[in-house]
Amino acid sequence: MSTVQKVNFEPYSNLLQTQTRDKVLADGTLVNPLNSVALVDGEWMTTDSSDKAIRATTIGSVGNAATLMSFPLFAERGRTDIQARAERGVPLIMFGEWEADTRIFDASVTIASGAPITTMWQPLKVATITIGSRNYSGLVGHGGAADTAPIAGYVSRLPAANGGKLRMHGGKGRL
What is the pTM assigned to this prediction? Predict the structure, then answer.
């Protein structure tokens, strides 16, 4: 079972090979740490038709799967440098190959044609999950060929062997 903490997304690989992009948020209030649905690092984002960052899933409905390519948020909740910007923007890891540990996942849930997270190199997808009493846009198991949701990455270390965190491989290998 995952738990949300101060740091929820930790790169395991060298990030020099990756590229982050700052994307202005469609809803700038999401970086306010006092907002009951504030963004946390490791949540998954996509962009709207105006190229503004939005959650990859609508968190009001658990089980809602992402339909567009999405990217992990790489900024801890409450970071003052993000809150201080006139245009509230967040860094998303968008290009390159990378590996990271995350707490924003649900290994046991099955969504649509998905499967529980149980094996190494299993594909992952993004969906609305519940951790504690709150919903997040996080990772769940992908169902393979029968699952039409985009693949967000692959399991490279199971939570049971990684201190409760899911290690995933993302980037070029998922396309």
Answer: 0.89
Residues 6 or more apart whose CB falls under 8 angstroms from that of 135 comprise 37, 59, 60, 62, 128, 129
Domain ranges of the chain: 13-174
At 15-33, the pLDDT tens digits run 666 777 889 999 988 888 8
